[in-house]
Amino acid sequence: MKREDLLKEMSESIGTKDPVVFFGKMVDMFSMMFDTVERLEKDLKRVKTQSALAIQWEPKVASDMLAKQVNVLRSQDKDAFASEITELKRAFTEDIVTQSYKEFCTFWEDTLGWHPFLD
User: What is the domain extent for residue 16?
Assistant: First the structure.
């Protein structure tokens, strides 16, 4: 449901419908707000990471990205991404691709098929 529609229904229910209807709509509105806040927090974290890397390459940030991507792939389907997980873990452990932006991006694209800062 769109925010505008929900707000309109909430205002129309004041004094005309059972308070449970209004509070049910309020719960829906809070849910929408919390989803938006969570999305914005994720976006902010991503932007902070990317802006830090744009200013100066940080191997520690790249290592953290490798570790997080391993966790993401494990949570999706550990068996389907076994080779990718192995490569990412090896790169993390040996610290072989985190020293330069170009090496890191090339490795990420070769392993996962997409640019690490694309989204």
Answer: 1-56
